[in-house]
Design goal:
By secondary structure, this protein is an alpha/beta fold. Helix content is 48%, strand content 17%. The protein is globular.
Length: 263
């Protein structure tokens, strides 16, 4: 009874006229959204409103990917794992599931593009799909190294003009720094100043972290750290909707902070 009342209040349903939708009705509604690709259209509609409010800028994007875990147990009716999911190694740990590839506005961090693949698909292969037509620069981590030389980028009319600001891997950055500024770095370390590679990486990470905030909302606040369904299409459709809702949540946070500052 309490759950029903909570659903009625959330959905703004008149208690005297109708009941809260049951699980079957919600399932059919979700299938309706998936068949017609409405989650992607809703993300576009949400971003159109945010753009009118000045919360989505243009000219640059931050791209990144995150792994969404999936059940790897075979103790089910089919005695098998989801065939559309795959294993991928991150650091020293293996993960089974899918990847959400995300492009976010470099100015505000609002997500504008979401793609999804199996977890074993490299980040760099999906990078070109996360760029908007009017982007002139893209910030990315070391997982996108060499993206400017890829075939899908070089053969595109627009992408070769994009400034790909890809962070070098730590070892490569230190080696290049030692070669070019070895004497200077020794002096800076002697007087207690920060190393150039660490300081540059820190500045770049502040820009790239904007997309990490969206991952935090979807995986921690919304609790979608693990795939809920079998297959990429169902989970991908839900992820697009969740990233749209994450944009709305960030919008509300910004609005509340502005109101608090004014008051």
């Amino acid at each position: 009874m309490d759950d029903s009342r909570a659903m009625k209040e959330f959905a703004k349903i008149d208690f005297s006229e109708e009941d809260a939708p049951d699980a079957t009705t919600l399932l059919q509604f979700r299938h309706l959204l998936e068949r017609n690709g409405l989650q992607e259209k809703l993300l576009v509609a949400i971003n159109a409103v945010l753009e009118r409010e000045g919360l989505i800028w243009h000219g640059g994007s931050v791209i990144d990917a995150t792994i969404i875990e999936a059940p790897c147990s075979t103790k089910n009716s089919g005695k098998s794992r989801d065939p559309e999911m795959a294993h991928a190694r991150k650091g020293n740990q293996w993960h089974f599931g899918m990847k959400a590839h995300v492009g976010a506005d470099a100015g505000t961090g609002m997500v504008h593009t979401v793609e999804f693949t199996a977890a074993n698909v490299s980040d760099v292969t999906e990078g070109s799909k996360l760029v908007r037509p009017d982007d002139v620069f893209v910030n990315a981590d070391a997982g996108y190294a060499g993206i400017g030389k890829r075939k899908e980028v070089s053969e595109d009319e627009r992408l070769p003009r994009v400034d790909w600001r890809v962070s070098p891997r730590p070892g490569k950055a230190r080696a290049l720094e030692a070669k070019l500024y070895g004497d200077v770095m020794e002096h800076l370390e002697w007087v207690g100043q920060p190393r150039w590679d660490a300081f540059t990486a820190y500045l770049m990470s502040k820009v790239r972290s904007k997309v990490e905030h969206c991952f935090y909302i979807v995986k921690r606040l919304f609790g979608y750290g693990k795939a809920r369904y079998r297959g990429l299409a169902k989970n991908g459709a839900r992820l697009r909707m969740l990233f749209g809702l994450a944009n709305i949540l960030r919008w509300s946070w910004r609005r509340d902070s502005l109101r608090a500052a004014v008051s």
